[in-house]
Amino acid sequence: MAKELAKSYKPSEFEDRIYDFWMKGNYFHAEVDKDKKPYTIVMPPPNITGQLHIGHALDLTLQDTLIRWRRMQGYAALWLPGTDHASIATEAKIVEAMRKEGVTKDDLGREGFLKRAWEWKEEYGGRITRQFRKLGSSCDWQRERFTMDEGCSKAVKEVFVKLYNKGLIYRGERIINWCPHCCTSISDAEVDFAEQEGFFWHLRYPLKDGSGYVEIATTRPETLLGDTAVAVNPDDERYKDIVGKTLILPLVGREIPVVADAYVEKDFGTGVVKITPAHDPNDFEVGLRHNLEVINVMDDTAHMNENAGKYQGMDRYECREAIVKDLEEGGFLVKIEPHTHNVGTCYRCKTTVEPRVSKQWFVKMEPLAKPAIKCVKEKQTQIIPERFEKVYYHWMENIKDWCISRQLWWGHRIPAWYCDDCGEVIVAKETPAACPKCGKNHLHQDEDTLDTWFSSALWPFSTLGWPDKTPELEYFYPTNTLVTGYDIIFFWVARMIFSAIEQTGQAPFKTVFMHGIVRDELGRKMSKSLGNGPDPIDVINRYGADALRFLLVTGNSPGNDIRYSEKRIEACANFANKLWNAARYVHMNIDDYDVENKLPDTLTTEDKWIVSKFNTVAKEVNENLEKFELGIAVQKVYEFIWDCYCDWYIELAKTRLSGDGEDAQNARQVLLYVLDQILRLLHPFMPYVTEEIWQTIPHEGETVMLAKYPEFKAELDFPEDVAEMERVMDAIRAIRNRRSEMNVPPSKKAKVYVATKFADTFTNGTPFIQKLASANEVEVAEHFDIDGAVTVVTADAKIYIPLSELVDKDAELARLNKELEQVKKRLAQSEGKLNNAGFVAKAPEAVIEKVKGQAAKEREQIALITAAIDALK
């Protein structure tokens, strides 16, 4: 590691080197240690298809900040990393790559395709975790897991078999969400609803007896081909006479009954609803109640099938157009009216999903949801911020059975086998040798795989060795904190909670820390289409990982979105540079001396001020981190470093550092001690720059990441000295501000008279007032009566500075009057434009707003200059 600090802050020159140093030192590895308290975070596993984006960077930065803080506090801190096989997304990517080669899944067969998928995983699976390292992620890479590794796969089989044997997993024909693009079922949680413009087609269904017709309205006329009834409300007086009668289905000629069912709303539309059990979840339930036939009219790709007659082979939307045309020609179309409605789309590919009846595997959710609701209500798991509990309860209390089978090859294959001889279904962890019912061995395994979320729902405990009772599981589980975006509360968080309670009898984590998303400076969500999402690797290469991390934590509060902008990232890099330069200044003053990294026995008022201020900040930062207020914590660290240490203490210390005596040595020790404590306090947020600097100063230990995190010490609390020092600092600030208002250069020295009841305080502070407020002499008394002086008032003093020592009154008046005339001329020009009707009518809005802004600034300048003239007079 570096022993000398480079002249300038260039993160690209040391960040990779430092990460290698941490890895070689094995500092990220957490062992089972009964002498330490465990603290565990499991990383939300990113897809192996992915690469680092700004959302990942936020997620990782928050987790790494917490894990580094706890590690420095002395916990056995485990941050367990891993990746998700992401069945739908990964299979789609592989299929797309094969398509470019002219190869299909069927060409390869299942085994050939899976061989290709594992090769793809080996090639791309590590890409995203390599990028995670660039950000400084201190994960225990020795414990890295993959949702389809041997241990996780063993857990999946264990859970499936246990739930099946308990009657909580079943196979049956139900209405599911079908994605025609991904060609698989998807769960309710994987459907995004968005408002779309559409139409209501009003249609006539004639009664078989020729006594008339009923009018229905539909948003999907193509599903008419699968209608097996029409329903009305049993209490609807309008239709009592036709219940039980038969209708003739337009274009098809099939006879269908009119049934009475409470599902139908009397006041919605015409009060008559077509029932298509194969293509609508509500219609499916009506069909079960009335024993209606289920006719599926579409294939897996949402093209019309053999049940669609002459429309067979058409895409669903092409069929819609053809049917509407035929209905109109047949006299069945009454009218078309515009209608905005919620349409479900696949959350991955955005294709409109098709509800359809299908034989799938399901998890019974009600028995699992109840204890999961209780877990959050009783605060076994606390969701932060609390407002997201409502979202959690709403979803869990209204949950439907979870469709877990997917018509894919990549993923955990369902551990169910079917006997070709007797039809027996065998669910087992291992491949059965023979059918337990008939003894034959003609068995075939279910072709489907499990929903990705089935395996990732087990992540907090499967990654620690469950179902085996490993030392890691016993020690690190339940985990402490889950850090995740609020957008996957249903997908993942809820499923982990009910899975963990069912399988381990414990909540999987004590706290769920929900963060928001990163938006651009205009508040827009980042997306490829807008081109407004920066590549984190590009940002790191340009500004350093610390600057990106600092930006992502600054202003962060639980559950709220944050904004990214180029200006903000530059400001964060400037902060790192400020710290670097402060460390360089400390080196200039300690390198030629033998300086111990500890506080001296004797502390001056300014020493006690900086030490006490740091002590308070350390206390508050720990309190904020305990409450997951990372944004507030980092702001306090920033303000202390920039304002207290760099802008004040270093300047205050300069009055003592020039000598070789004990006072100078004490100042060096305090400078070094506080710098060391700063580096520790800042380390979880900006690990690289703090490590690089820390390695160059006198210290004990191998790395700052294992140094003790600062905490409040009662013996370093000096409130009286802080108050005393800040009286002097307030006076210095006030004098500087007044001199700045009067354009007095720092080189122009003047005598300062301080009238105060705190005479000792200001007498002791005289050297600081002289150095930092450009005073050549300071006189302190309870009262002064001075004419022709500029007065400055603070809460504890009235300060006089003879005007003649600051400015040449006549010359300054002349300068101010000249400046006043110039600003008045500019204001007259601005107002002239704004009063010109032609200009206002023709100029673009932006130009007019700019002129208005100029005029406002000019009025403000005139007021300030006039006040300065009055003060001089």
How would you sum up this structure in a few lines?
This protein is 44% helix and 17% strand. It has a 4-stranded antiparallel sheet. A 4-stranded mixed sheet has the order 10-11-9-12, with helices on one face.
**Mean of residue pLDDT?**
91
Tell me the helix content.
40-55%
> Which residues form runs of ≥5 with pLDDT under 50?
none
Strand content: 15-25%
Q: Work out the oligomeric state of the chains in this entry.
A: single chain
| Tally of helical segments | 28
Helix/strand-derived class? alpha/beta
| Major sheet description | 4 strands, antiparallel
Principal-axes geometry comes out as globular
Roughly how many Å is the radius of gyration? 37 Å
Query: How far is it from the N-terminal to the C-terminal residue, by CA?
Result: 63 Å
- The count of DSSP E runs of length 2 or more, i.e. the number of strands, is 29
Arrangement of strands in the largest sheet: 6-5-14-16
Describe the 3D structure:
- The protein has 873 residues and is of the alpha/beta class.
- Helices cover 44% and strands 17% of the residues.
- The chain is built from 28 helices and 29 strands.
- The strands form ten sheets. A four-stranded antiparallel beta sheet has the order 6-5-14-16. It has a four-stranded mixed beta sheet with strand order 10-11-9-12, covered by helices on one side. A four-stranded mixed beta sheet has the order 27-26-29-28.
- Helix 2 (54-72) links the parallel strand 1 (38-42) and strand 2.
- The longest helix is centred in the last third of the chain and has 28 residues, at 630-657.
- The relative contact order is 0.09.
- The mean pLDDT is 91.
